[in-house]
Structure formats: C-alpha cells, structure tokens
Design a protein that fits this description.
By secondary structure, the protein is mainly alpha-helical. The chain has one domain (4-191): Methane Monooxygenase Hydroxylase, Chain G, domain 1 (Up-down Bundle). 59% of the residues lie in helices and 10% in strands. The chain has helices spanning 4-22, 55-75, 83-99, 108-120, 130-145, 149-166, 179-191; strands spanning 27-35, 39-46, 176-178. The chain has a 3-stranded antiparallel beta sheet with strand order 2-1-3. Strand 1 (27-35) and strand 2 (39-46) form a beta hairpin. Helix 1 packs antiparallel against helix 2, helix 3 (83-99) crosses helix 5 (130-145) and helix 6 (149-166) packs antiparallel against helix 7 (179-191). The longest helix is centred in the first third of the chain and has 21 residues, at 55-75. The mean pLDDT is 89.
Length: 199
C-alpha cells in the first residue's frame, strides 16, 4: 500500500482521470512522479483546451477540477468539507486571482474558480457566485463517491504500479500513464459496475 502522501496524490489524479473520461474529455497522459527532494508530483493532462464559454461545458470542467480533492478525501476516509469552509476557500481564491491573474503554478482550486468565473458570465446574477458554485462541487463529490468510485480504484491501482516503478529514477526516465490506456481502464471499471449510469 502507498504511503498516505503518495496515496493521496494518486487518488487525486485517479479522480481527475475518472471524471474527465466520464465526460468524454480526452486525456493525453496522467503523470505520477515521486520526487523525494521536491515532494510528490502528479498531473492529468487533457488532450484539448479548457472551454472559454458555454455553461454546461464549463460546469463539466469545474467538476473535473473538483474531482481530485473529492477522490483524495474518499480514498482515505475523510468527509467532504462543510459548505461555509468551501465558500470561504472560493472567496479567498477569487481575491488571490484578482491580485495574481496569471499564476505560474498549477492548482485545482485556481482552475475551478477561473472556470466558475467564466461560467458566471453565462448565468443570471442570482445563479452566480461562490454560494452557487458549491452545488457544482457537491455534484463532483457525489459522482466520485458513488458511481465513479470503481473507476477511481482501478486507475489508482495502475498509477500506484507506475509510481512505484518511478521511485529513484531521474525525471527523464519516469513513466506516465497514457491517456488512451487510462480511458480504457475507466470504461472497463464502469461497464462492470452496477452503480454506473451514463450521464
């Protein structure tokens, strides 16, 4: 079994992978690269760009951004964060983005909020803002904790084997999970699950 730090990150990337595949958003690769000096790094790289408009598409990508944390918390038995905590995080992230519109690092909450702000341009004022984003975040958690969980577990197992093989190797010698293989794993896990209902 993975250590909690590595396990959390693998569950995280497995959650993103399951959600992207659920929404038929193609993935180029999934990286799981343990670095004992710098910490643990992982990323799901979509094969297409994020949408800039379209309420439904933006909300799909918001759920994909939320899926990593949802899978982490489910994987290690932690409950979802309370609504007031989430709303506070959203609001602080808005403030951060206002001061740092082009951050140089990757962060799922930044992605979620950026997408949410774009989505708010497409809805009525009473449907916009952090209080309304909570519903979308909860939808991601419900999918991950429910019908997508068999896929998260299947991807976790494959990513764990890759992460273990990567330990101690230089970055250029580390392996990633190919996006097509990832999609096959997700679809196979979902097709054999009684929980799965196509969206």
């Amino acid at each position: 079994m993975a250590t909690p730090i590595i396990g959390n990150m693998i569950f995280h990337e497995a959650g993103h992978t399951a959600m992207f595949t659920y929404y038929k958003i193609p993935i180029q690769s999934v990286s799981v690269r343990p670095d004992l000096a710098q910490g643990y790094g992982g990323m799901v790289l979509p094969a297409i760009n994020e949408p800039e408009a379209g309420k439904e598409e933006l909300e799909k990508w918001m759920r994909c951004a939320a899926a990593g944390q949802a899978a982490e918390r489910r994987g290690y038995g932690r409950q979802p964060q309370d609504d007031p905590i989430l709303k506070d995080i959203f609001e602080r992230t808005i403030d951060f983005l206002a001061k740092n519109p082009n951050p140089t690092f990757h962060d799922d909450m930044l992605n979620f909020v950026r997408l949410a702000l774009a989505r708010d341009k497409e809805v009525a004022p009473e449907q916009a803002g952090p209080a309304n984003w909570i519903t979308i975040w909860r939808e991601a958690e419900e999918l991950i904790r429910g019908q997508l969980w068999p896929a998260v577990e299947a991807v976790f197992k494959r990513l764990l084997s890759i992460a273990e093989a990567n330990i101690g190797n230089p970055v250029e010698a580390m392996s990633d999970l190919d996006g097509e293989e990832a999609a096959v794993i997700v679809r196979a896990a979902l097709s054999s699950s009684s929980l799965y209902m196509p969206y």
